[in-house]
Amino acid sequence: MTKQSSRLGNLIKKYCPNGVKFKELYKLTIWDKRFDGVEKEKQPNVRSFKHISAAELKSLYIKGSCNVQNNVRLLSTGQFDGYTAQELVGDNLNNDEVIAIPSGGSANLKYCKGKFVDSGNILAVARDENVRLKYVYYFLLDKNRLIESYFRGSGLKHPSMREILEIKIPVPAIEVQEEIVRILDTFTQLESELESELELRTKQYEYYRNSLLSFESDKTRQVKWAILGEIGKVSMCKRIMKNQTSSVGDIPFYKIGTFGKKADAYIKKEVYEEYKNKYSFPKLGDILLSASGTIGRRVIYDGKPAYFQDSNIVWIDNDESKIMNKFLYYLYETITWQTEGGTIKRLYNANVEKTKIPIPPMSEQKRIVGVLDRFDSLVNDISVGLPAELSARRKQYEYYRNKLLAFKEVDCREAANRLL
To answer: Cα torsion at 249, 253, 258, 260 (round to 10°)?
Structure first.
């Protein structure tokens, strides 16, 4: 970033040596509707766009359509994003450069330049040629928490545009705006490439996992079949009563809602030691399995002091000389568990015991685990591999976005010095 920062610093010294003007958002943008509580002089004009329902928008989605010639972006208010072909859009096509703020939900801001179809957003265009709309978008993105605080309501929250339009934005020279956009676009592109790579590797991992663990379709592979009840007893911890837990304490107690996450309940060390020694307790490396809620969630017990909710979290007390824990870990991910119950599904011990699994020779188990471990680290481990790289890139992007947009209204020379 040194060359880019120096270039931007030089532009700041050249074009705004005495400071940067700040302007309210309403002075920089034209919106597609008039807002309650906003004076007419702040919205002398509105811009018309076409909108459709969320259901209609999703019905237009074509997988892989970003590669289709003349593709059209689908702008939703949520995380859904995608493209469609222009011939499917009909009269609902828009073609412009816009910032989109959801009319309800949360502050999920988006930027679009070109052809698009919208559902549920409030849209803005640039008010004049002295502002680059994407620069405004990046600034608003940096103020996402503030904008989120302006979304209010008891049910579905709606934005208070009266307050949002008053957000003050530094407006340096066009050359400075464009350089900031160029730098942040570079970060965005790098992040997008990493996300695409992660998605590709995840699909690759799933393919190899399913292929390596699919023994029924390949009769040439040596394998024995057994039910889980034959390789070990379904085990669980001794029941812990509610009055034995507290919000703070010595030993984390994982309930089904916090399984695999951060514990919000604790038990006394004396209880832990007594129950651990007197009753069933997992060994280091045992595969803990959720039997309620999200069925089949897996956690490898790391041996650290912890206790687990009975019947909701179970494990197979298996002999690792016959079947590896790590092999079970990957195998469990491919199993469609037979559950019972209505709204809340449950995986009962009897269902676990009757589940049929393949048991290849130990040498084959080790080979499969070795292959899948490498893929798992690449796509799932937040300390290494692509997730770690993506996390680092996002933090770097947020850091520079905040730094690049940190102008002072009176004097921007300090900003130039920080970037040189």
So the answer is: 110
